[in-house]
Design goal:
With 335 residues, the chain is mostly beta strands. The chain has two domains: 261 residues, Beta Barrel (Thrombin, subunit H), CATH 2.40.10.10; 39 residues, no CATH class. The chain is built from three helices and 24 strands. The strands form seven sheets. A six-stranded antiparallel barrel has the order 1-2-3-10-7-4. Strands 12-15-18-21-20-19 form a six-stranded antiparallel β-barrel. A hairpin with a 4-residue loop joins strand 1 and strand 2.
Length: 335
């Protein structure tokens, strides 16, 4: 179904249609791990050729030039450059199109004014009786046998499937046995599904129970979406025998919280960040070669208040010539 304008303001299109994502903070997008380049990021690979741009609140594209934008009077799309990105440390790719812990967090080079989506933190709300359906959205293929991207943002309601039931799916010699883990959430609906180029796109639970004044967090419609998962992989689009396998967010909520709190310039309250942050500014990014630990680049920053401690730290550094670096993948656009 075509999405109404402004229905999903948190939907993000990455790199002109390669992947989708979810705005979870004014400057943070959550997407699939396989949406990042597979190569090790270093100063020799400073910008994400495969992930350079983010379009927040995108709703449509111009079929003539394959460019994504909505040029109507109600347009609210906001475009950003990808500043840096973090792939989950347990991310794994099996074969061509099968993933585990398929998560990445992307920091934008500015803050969006559009409404972000909150992550569902109480999975008991996923109840087959009261909330059996989730909503997936995207700008990918709308028909598996016709390789053409959608001209307008579409959404579809899908039933979520218990992991134990999902793992039992089989047909002929093909089976999901041993391929479903805690990072997965399966969905299934006959003839309906996400498809190619929807990777990383949001899958949400919409709650419709209003508060006493008829709204939820100020939304006069009484509706509020909560992010539950994101599109990851599956055997085929809308396969009649196998559910789609998505990336379940509750499996990595601590990693999401920690990363958002460390890097967002304006983390929402539900992430529980400390009032004292040490988030580095965007201008702190550097082209210098990254030190590595276990193959990952590291940066380290020290924040000192008392001048005595400043002198002490400088003395230690002078004597031992020691420094380390904190994990970060820096994305920069080459001139």
């Amino acid at each position: 179904m075509r999405a109404p304008v402004h229905r999903f303001p948190y939907f993000v299109l990455l790199n002109n249609g390669d992947c989708g994502g979810s705005l979870i903070a004014p400057d943070i997008v959550l997407t699939a791990g396989h949406c990042l380049p597979e190569r090790t990021l270093s100063r020799h690979y400073k910008h994400a050729v495969d992930l350079a741009w983010a379009q927040v609140g995108i709703i449509a594209r111009d079929e003539a030039d394959d460019d994504y934008y909505f040029d109507g009077p109600d347009s609210s799309e906001e475009d950003f450059v990808v500043l840096r990105a973090f792939r989950h440390p347990k991310y794994r790719r099996y074969g061509d199109d099968e993933f585990s812990y398929d998560y990445s967090i992307v920091q934008l080079n500015g803050t969006s004014t559009l409404q972000y989506v909150s992550i569902l933190r109480d999975e008991s709300l996923l109840n087959e009786t009261t909330h059996p359906y989730l909503t997936a959205m995207g700008l990918g293929w709308t028909q598996p046998d016709r390789p053409s991207k959608a001209n307008w943002l579409h959404y579809v309601d899908l039933a979520w499937v218990n992991n134990e039931v999902c793992e039992e799916a089989s047909y002929g010699e093909e089976s999901y046995h041993g391929r479903i883990d805690l990072s997965h959430l399966c969905t299934f609906e006959p003839g309906k599904d996400s498809c190619n180029y929807d990777s990383g796109s949001p899958i949400v639970l919409t709650l419709t129970t209003p508060t006493k004044d008829g709204s939820i967090d100020g939304d006069p419609s009484g509706l509020r979406d909560f992010l539950v998962a994101q599109v990851s992989w599956g055997r085929e689009c809308a396969d009649q025998h196998f559910p789609a396998v998505n990336a379940r967010l509750s499996a990595v909520i601590d990693w999401i919280d920690d990363t958002v709190c460390e890097w967002s310039v304006d983390p929402p309250a539900d992430f529980g960040c400390s009032s004292i942050t040490t988030t580095p500014a965007a201008s702190n990014a550097t082209d210098s070669p990254a030190s590595t630990i276990d193959g990952q680049p590291w940066n380290f920053s020290v924040y000192i208040v008392d001048s005595v401690y400043v002198l002490l730290i400088l003395f230690i550094l002078a004597v031992f010539g020691w420094h380390r670096k904190r994990k970060v993948h820096d994305y920069k656009i080459l001139e």
